[in-house]
Amino acid sequence: MALRYALLASLLALSLGCDSFPNGTDHAFHWWSCGAADGVSVSAVQPVNPDGSPQYPVRLDQDLHIAVDLINNNRIFSKLSLDVTVWTWSGLFKCGWKQIPTFGLLEDLDACDMSLTCPLKTGSGPITVKLPFSKYGIIIRLLKNNAPYQLKYELSDENGNVAYCLMAQTRALTK
Ligand SMILES: *[C@@H]1O[C@H](CO)[C@@H](O)[C@H](O)[C@H]1NC(C)=O
After folding, report:
1. Predicted pLDDT at 56
2. pLDDT at 1
3. Three-state SS for 138?
4. Alpha carbon distance 64, 55 (integer Å)
5. Is the dihedral of CA 13, 16, 18, 23 positive or negative?
6. What pLDDT does 170 receive?
7. 28 lines ligand 1 (CB under 6 A)
8. Which of 18, 20, 23, 42 to mutate to test the pocket of ligand 1 (most atoms within 8 A of CB)?
9. What is the maximum span of the chain, computed from C-alpha positions, in angstroms?
10. What is the DSSP letter of 54?
11. pLDDT tens digit string along 48-74?
């Protein structure tokens, strides 16, 4: 419970003030690449419902599914770890991204178990990645609803090198 109260206090401190949506996130998902192994790239990123139809705003109170067109001309990746970082857009006078403390709950996850179908083959094609937020509903529900969030989704190989890193900014529902 101490964890919950610590989170609640820091979230309350973060939730005042800002109501604009940066980078057009009021109406569209915004993303860019924040790192990749040689030969790995992504050409399209779209949050989707379980049936594959586009989802916007995204829902953080459920597992988030993102359809990605991936090109992997590097090698077969059979083991990948996943780090997820979440920021909220806030501030009293000037808006900025503030990292939400997740106390390691979203670090060093087994991506093959929680997020992707492994091995990640070579070649190009659509894949769907899952961000396993439903497990963290107790934290997510404390977050401001219908607000801008920034997410970092970072896959690392067995040597700790970044295989692919995606940054996304999105309008999100938390309830
Ligand atoms: C808007 O997106 C760009 C990348 O496309 C990023 O560099 C910039 O920091 C973003 N602006 C804000 C306010 O987050």
Report:
1. 98
2. 60
3. helix
4. 9
5. positive
6. 98
7. no
8. 23
9. 48
10. B
11. 998 999 999 999 999 999 999 999 999
d(CA 121, CA 123): 7
CA of 3 to the centre of ligand 1 (A): 31
Cα–Cα distance list, 142 to 75, 111, 147, 163 (Å): 40, 25, 12, 32
23 lines ligand 1 (CB under 6 A): yes
- For residue 88, report the distance from its CA to the centre of ligand 1, in Å: 14
Residue with tokens 């790239």: 41
79 alpha carbon, distance to own chain's centre: 19
Distance (angstroms) between ligand 1 centre and the Cα of 33 equals: 11
Query: Residue 81 forms beta bridges with which residues?
Result: 110, 156
* Sequence letter at residue 5: Y
CA-to-CA distance for 146 and 58, rounded, in angstroms?
A: 9
Decide whether any atom of ligand 1 lies within 6 Å of the 32 Cβ: yes
Cα 12 to ligand 1 centre (Å): 24
Smallest CA separation from ligand 1 atom 14, residue: 22
